[in-house]
Amino acid sequence: MSERTLAIIKPDAVKNNAIGDIIASYEKSGLTPVAMRMMQFSKATAEGFYSVHKARQFFDSLCTFMSSGPVVVLVLQGDNAIKTNRELMGATDPAKAAAGTIRKAHGANIEFNAVHGSDSPETAQFEIAYFFPLMEIAG
Ligand code: ADP
Ligand code: MG
Fold this sequence. Notes:
The radius of gyration is 14 Å and the shape is globular. The protein is α+β, with helices and mostly antiparallel strands. The longest helix is centred in the C-terminal third of the chain and has 11 residues, at about 120-130. The protein has a single domain (about 1-135), classed as 2-Layer Sandwich (Alpha-Beta Plaits). It has helices at about 10-15, 20-30, 45-50, 60-65, 80-90, 100-105, 120-130, and strands at about 1-10, 30-40, 70-80, 115. About 40% of the residues lie in helices and about 20% in strands. Strands 2-3-1-4 form a 4-stranded antiparallel sheet, sandwiched between helices. The chain binds adenosine-5'-diphosphate (ADP) and magnesium ion. The site of adenosine-5'-diphosphate has 9 residues, from loops.
């Protein structure tokens, strides 16, 4: 079933010049970009995006990191896009991520882990709408 997911190439990966490599990984995995935007989050934008994590001890550090430099936000479309992207990303902690995953290749540690991906249809819907009005999504 074709579906959409929200991906973010995080500030660490942008700083490491990994944008092209990561987008190539999406395309090779059948995940087609249908919307894309480079921007820098304010702290408040990061806090709103990650509000499900606001009780976690790493919340403030995560939001500081996510607003520390430019990111690339994408809507990816494809068969089982949410699960396909989560598998391609690898485990949250790059040290535990499987070979061939984006986090294994580009992540430094459990916080600076190169990419974000929606984890369910409900979060994908919230996250896509957080950044893109429907008219800005191709197809
Ligand atoms: P994922 O991004 O794999 O869905 P989570 O939703 O659990 O992981 O966490 C969101 C983000 O918060 C992670 O991608 C990572 O950047 C950061 N994070 C998660 N756990 C920790 C932790 N224990 N310490 C610091 N940062 C963390
Ligand atoms: Mg998550």
